[in-house]
DNA sequence: AATGAATGAGGTTTCATTCAT
DNA sequence: TATGAATGAAACCTCATTCAT
């Protein structure tokens, strides 16, 4: 029993160590040897913990999703919607580096699903988790709006690859835009 | 007398025929053999028109940018800003399929630049062309806002890979949000 | 009739123009496109005058052999053997650049014959032409000695690829060595 | 525990097994698949031990040079110069097959350096090692003479490709010629 | 559990040669 | 005659995966 927990925990550690590498190069451009080297293990060991590269990637995406849920939970819900939007924006800016990488990996995962003709189950499932988390956070009853917001965060993140100094500016713009939109269309 | 062919024009035709394939699979997942097959030529012919896969991809990105400039130009400038925003949204929705693919390829190109350590010259140059085109269209003096808008369109587009029925809804949301933002913050 | 002569002559011109290219790169490293470019014609034209790359190369080797026979003939035969050896050495030094290239191509041709499993007929035939020419020039009755001399010239030539200033020195050494040998072993 | 293998030693074994193939066909005419087949391994394994075909070839040349130094060392130095020359000739004749192949590869390497525009460092370095070894063996103070001798051996070797029965005759001729030369020009 | 040597299918690219014009 | 676009076999090389140790 305790052994199993250790294995599971070690797997999580390995996944965490992969994060930067996948964010930087993308699934298709990372070799298993590079992964093994980054993790400080042999390729044999890598294949001992993960059946193949695809599963490794999918588990990484799941791990990221779980972490993102935690990030979103940090927002204090005892505030007006505008305040919560600003708080979310603030958290994104504070975790800028992580958020950008997470978005890059997510987009990479979307392409991976279409390119490798992998079943979208995981993709759809994670997608709806984000949708729900944002919906709850901002008391939205239109799921499209919730998804929309997270999509915009991705959009902004991805385009930071080269000049990452504008991330904060753009998240701020997004924040203001959302506030203006909600003020005009939906009563808080 | 040799076969007379407008090489430059034929190159453009070939690039156009690649568009769907790259949008669907992504640069790293498309093989040159697949490209040749899609184009209905041999790999030898492919390499007769493009020195290598990278240049082929870069020229495709350039072609897309030129086409996008044409799409943006379609908006009638004799309207209020809100009207122009709506017109732009309308055009995006009308060209939904193309816009999504274009965005997917663009994001792929961003990753390609970072993964292959290709010089960013082309990336930055194209980036600023979009910025300028949007700035002119909406009379913006803050370039960050212009870039921001196009980034959001990319963000929305990318996430359509699997359920593309929400594109129109999300572009509509973006339109309304931009209008609300400009009404509140910037006089038309 | 005159047409045929022209074609033949044009072929010789083309071959002459290939000489430097083959000497510099070697048969296997020269592409037909490079040859065509060097000749200022299209690949189609190249294949109009020569059935393929192999025949082109073989004809070049033949042409070189004919030219070498002319070089050797320049030696005035009304001299002692030692004088004739020195005269030959002098001619080699005067034509240093040509001699080196000719030797490089010849060695390349030897390798070509073994690598491509081409029949050695041409090789043997040319070999014996050199043997005879040297035998006649130096009044040798041992054909091995004649061949030996030409082989040494090749050996010296090939090793000039990088520091070609020692060619004259080494031909001079060869000359002295031959003279010493003949003085000791064979009466002039 | 992993399979224990002395990588460096295995590399040397692999190189030794390549020797004949390269001698017979030449660098440009040997394919990596042929090499792998000759070595009895897969192409993947080949690339596990050598980063690419060029480096493989260069390491082969280095290995050959080291072996040649051993061959030259076999000559007993407690003899007159004439005797040492004869002893060297004898060793060359005894190792005829190896010497010819070694020479063919060396010449191939010279062409390889010029054709592939590889830096000549290795070539010059090896060149000087031969020069020194011969100089020491025959107590020569003129390095040109030392280089000259080895060049002649190469020249003779290369021309044996097709009728290798004359090698001994020609090495014998070279030996006599050198003795005659030294008797006349340089006191033993 | 851990290693890394070994595999070989499949990737990108080259190039001798052909052929419609 | 002359052209050069087109071909596709085959070159070099990579990399996910396996397996003996």
What is this entry, summarized?
By secondary structure, chain A is an all-alpha fold.
Topology:
4 copies of one chain form a homotetramer.
Chain A: H1 2-25, H2 32-39, H3 43-49, H4 53-73, H5 81-94, H6 96-115, H7 121-138, H8 143-158, H9 167-185
Helix pairs in contact in A: 1-2, 1-4, 1-6, 4-6, 4-7, 5-9, 6-8, 7-8, 8-9
The structure holds a DNA duplex (21 and 21 nucleotides).
CATH class of chain A: Mainly Alpha
Uncertain runs of chain A with pLDDT below 50, 5 residues or more? Answer: none
Number of domains of chain A: 1
Number of H- or I-type helical stretches of chain A: 9
Straight-line N-to-C gap of chain A = 49 Å
Determine the CATH topology of chain A: Tetracycline Repressor, domain 2
What is the H-and-E element order of chain A?
HHHHHHHHH
Query: What does the overall shape of chain A look like?
Result: elongated
Please estimate the helix content of chain A: over 70%
CATH architecture of chain A: Orthogonal Bundle
Describe this structure in words.
- The structure is a homotetramer of 188-residue chains.
- With 188 residues, chain A is mainly α.
- Chain A has one domain (2-185): Tetracycline Repressor, domain 2 (Orthogonal Bundle).
- In chain A, 78% of the residues lie in helices and 0% in strands.
- The A-B interface holds A 24-26, 28-29, 104, 107-108, 110-111, 113-116, 120, 123-124, 144-145, 147-148, 151-156, 158-159, 161-162, 166, 169-170, 173-174, 176-178, 180-181, 183-185 and B 24-26, 28-29, 104, 107-108, 110-111, 113-116, 120, 123-124, 144-145, 147-148, 151-156, 158-159, 161-162, 166, 169-170, 173-174, 176-178, 180-181, 183-185.
């Amino acid at each position: 029993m305790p052994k199993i927990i250790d294995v599971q925990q070690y797997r999580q550690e390995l996944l965490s160590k992969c994060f930067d590498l996948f964010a930087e190069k993308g699934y298709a451009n990372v070799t298993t040897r590079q992964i093994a080297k980054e993790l400080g293990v042999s390729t044999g060991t890598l294949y001992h913990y993960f059946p193949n590269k695809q599963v490794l990637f999918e588990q990484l995406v799941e791990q990221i999703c779980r972490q993102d849920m935690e990030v979103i939970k940090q927002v204090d819900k005892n505030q007006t919607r505008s305040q919560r939007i600003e708080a979310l924006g603030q958290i994104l800016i504070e975790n800028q580096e992580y958020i950008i990488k997470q978005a890059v990996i997510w987009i990479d995962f979307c392409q991976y699903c279409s390119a490798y003709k992998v079943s979208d189950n995981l993709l759809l499932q994670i997608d709806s988790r984000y949708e729900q988390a944002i919906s709850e956070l901002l008391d939205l009853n239109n799921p499209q709006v919730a998804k929309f917001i997270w999509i915009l965060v991705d959009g902004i993140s991805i385009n930071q690859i080269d000049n990452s100094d504008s991330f904060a500016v753009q998240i701020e713009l997004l924040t203001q835009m959302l506030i203006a939109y909600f003020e005009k269309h939906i009563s808080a």
